[in-house]
Design a protein that fits this description.
Number of helices: 4
Strand order of the largest sheet: 4-5-8-6-7
Structural class: alpha/beta
Helix content: 25-40%
Number of strands: 8
Shape: elongated
Radius of gyration: 18 Å
Order of helices and strands: HEEEHEHEHEEE
Distance between the termini: 43 Å
Largest sheet: 5 strands, mixed
Length: 171
Amino acid sequence: MLEKQTGHISDLIFDSFTSLLRKKSLVSSLKINIDDFSMEIMGANDQRLSPDDLSAGERQLLAVAMLWGLARASNRPLPAVVDTPLGRLDAGHRINLVQNYFPYASHQVFLLSTDEEIDSDLYDVIRPFVSRSYTLKFDDTENATTITDGYFGFALTEAIGTKGLSADAAV
């Protein structure tokens, strides 16, 4: 039973990871060891990859893929909260995360980003999945935070539901 479940979770994490990676041939398989629950990642030519062999962005995507795979294995609708979602990622990985993860991560996704992470092009990609967006701005003179509708000046004119999914963008 344990072998079957870890195999299922391994498959879900592998599927999630490969959908987020820019280098599609980087990883050929991923397996969770049932003895100690360590993860074995195999690369091209079936050579074992250590997380240290991955770039910082690829390690971040692996962490996201692990959480996504576990959430999918639970078969329960759990909200996803992602803080600084694109911080260490290059342009290719950013678009993969915006297209392949945020819209499908959960029935409800909260993105807590900075004004530098999601530009107008990326916002246009995710806009069909956004039901609400807010900008939080701290005022030093008032020592208070104000909340305004919209994502850093990008107005959301209408909420468009896609497959019943929605994502909330926040800062």
